[in-house]
Write a structure and sequence with these properties.
With about 375 residues, this protein is α+β, with helices and mostly antiparallel strands. The protein contains 14 helices and eight strands. It is elongated.
Length: about 375
């Protein structure tokens, strides 16, 4: 036989090679078992983490087939694993029709590699209840295939908190409106000739702000400041406020403190807008000739510049104890002639446009509230 022709050395060499091969196979087997053990541990670790997550989590493939769910999914929806795993959520009534359409659209985007932001859906439980969830998803490799791990964040508590917060804010706004209205009535009770003046100024200032395309938040701040811009007249003697003749210099100097008095009253209130500052500056002028601090140009808040123009136009077109109404034409002439020097030119132009092109008119009813614009009466009040 062939091996009979081999030398002793050749036999020893082959025996060594054979032992090396056996050792390699034994090492490979140990390594394989180690890898298998690690995989089992990783799988167990993943399943443990997967099922202790507080939010419901679902793994779905690119066709919407449910590959895996956490125990929390069963607790929340009432559906067990047999009813969900292996089924397509697209063919089940797990989501409302609107939510299903949104989910399908976002699933398609994810499968095309597009990034999507968390979105809201309504989940239908087994007993027909609707629960709002925010969905967030991440792409994973699940058993060698691409899949999405989808987390459902319950919005019920958050929405309830938001509703409670909105309710509290509404109550706060009502209380604030009542407080502001009490302030308005206090001023107008002491100064009969300017009853309704603050509201008419507010309506014009608000219309100017809209014409200038300011934001709703800015307009709301201007409206609030306008409603109480003369609150500081509480600190002026009523005999001066209602004096039927022209004021002496010393009397006018007392009138000129009312923006500062108003500021000191309002600065203690935490408005969401700079109401106190607007009230303080509404008699300041672009060239620094106004009062109480002689502020000029862009250092005057835009809300105060708007309120200042509205205040002048309303005052000139209204009766005062010491003079009859000068009329709207004279008022518009005043702000047109002195724009840039006394008044903000953009504000002045917007005001003139309202009266000459958009039929704005002051509504002078018994309470002095409301305005007529474009032949419609729009009531405005706090």
């Amino acid at each position: 036989m062939k091996h009979q022709n081999k030398t002793k050395g050749e036999f020893i060499y082959e025996l060594v090679k054979l032992r090396q091969r056996i050792a390699e196979l034994e090492t490979s087997e140990v390594q394989r078992k180690q890898v298998e053990q690690q995989l089992e541990e990783a799988k167990s670790h993943f399943e443990t983490l997967f099922n202790v997550v507080v939010d419901p989590v679902v793994i779905i493939d690119g066709k919407g087939k449910i590959l895996e769910i956490t125990n929390r999914v069963q607790e929340v929806t009432g559906f067990n694993r047999e009813e969900l795993v292996g089924k397509s959520f697209l063919k089940m009534n797990l989501l409302t029709a609107k939510s299903k359409a949104i989910a399908i659209k976002n699933l398609a985007k994810r499968m095309m590699g597009m990034k999507i932001t968390p979105y809201e859906v309504e989940v239908l439980t087994k007993d027909g209840k609707k629960i709002s969830f925010e969905i967030d998803a991440v792409r994973i490799d699940y058993r060698g295939k691409a899949a999405d791990m989808v987390a459902f964040r319950d919005l019920t508590k958050r929405k309830k908190n938001q509703e409670e917060l909105q309710g509290a804010l509404k109550k706060l706004r009502r209380a604030l409106r009542a407080t502001i209205q009490a302030m308005v009535l206090t001023v107008e009770t002491r100064d009969a000739y300017t009853a309704g003046h603050q509201q008419r100024v507010t309506n014009l200032a608000r219309a100017i702000a809209k014409e200038m395309k300011l934001s709703k938040d800015q307009i709301d701040g201007i409206r609030m400041a306008g409603t109480i811009h003369d609150i500081g007249k509480i600190g002026v003697p009523s005999e001066i406020l209602n004096k039927p003749t022209r004021l002496a210099d010393i009397e006018f100097n007392l009138i000129k403190i009312h923006p500062l008095v108003g500021y000191n009253i309002l600065k203690q209130i935490e408005f969401p807008w700079p109401v106190a500052e607007i009230v303080l500056q509404h008699h300041e002028r672009m060239n620094g000739s106004g009062y109480p601090h002689g502020v000029s140009g862009k250092d005057i808040l835009l809300g105060a510049r708007i309120l200042g123009v509205a205040d002048v136009v309303e005052a000139m077109s209204s009766h005062r104890p010491y003079r009859p109404a000068l009329g709207i034409d004279k008022a518009l002439e005043e702000i047109s002639k002195n724009k840039d020097t006394l008044y903000d030119p953009q504000v002045a132009d917007a005001c003139v446009k309202l009266f000459t092109q958009k039929e704005f008119k002051f509504e002078r009813n018994s309470k002095g509230w409301g305005r007529r614009c474009n032949k419609r009466t729009v009531k405005t009040s706090y």
